[in-house]
């Protein structure tokens, strides 16, 4: 008599969420914007935050982008606790944000607006604007956006500004 052995199906390891916000709370005097909010986004997912004015959507995203510090809670990127101290640290972690209200300087070019705030600090630091323009042009081609890095923001349609 032969013995049979059960074969277990192979399971793919479950990767952690790309972005996870756990128990995020933020309040100001008289206003609770976020009360122990949890958000989990896996790679490839698209989510929408929907709610009335004052529901805390922008506050939550501003916390993720480092513009506001939460009163409590934690943020994980790919399963690792992230210390987001401002937009620069968010950007280093691969987090970007398209603001609800334009935060552009109309007389500057597309490239100047994109790199604003990313300039290297310290004495003698030099920013490679030519390389930045090349990178921006490559990204615009990759995503099918007809944007010339040398175009002034004020010359772009509202859709392209966004």
State the CATH class of the largest domain.
Answer: Alpha Beta
Shape: globular
CATH superfamily of the largest domain: P-loop containing nucleotide triphosphate hydrolases
Rg value:
21 Å
- The chain-level structural class is alpha+beta
Query: Approximately what portion of the residues adopt beta-strand conformation?
Result: 15-25%
CATH architecture of the largest domain: 3-Layer(aba) Sandwich
Strand order of the largest sheet: 2-1-3-4
CATH topology of the largest domain: Rossmann fold
Detailed description of the structure:
This protein is α+β, with helices and mostly antiparallel strands and 162 residues long. It folds into 2 domains: 19-92, Rossmann fold (3-Layer(aba) Sandwich); 110-161, no CATH class. It is 23% helix and 19% strand. It has 5 helices and 4 strands. The protein has a 4-stranded antiparallel beta sheet, covered by helices on one side. A hairpin with a 2-residue loop joins strand 3 (72-77) and strand 4. The model has no long low-confidence stretch (mean pLDDT 87).
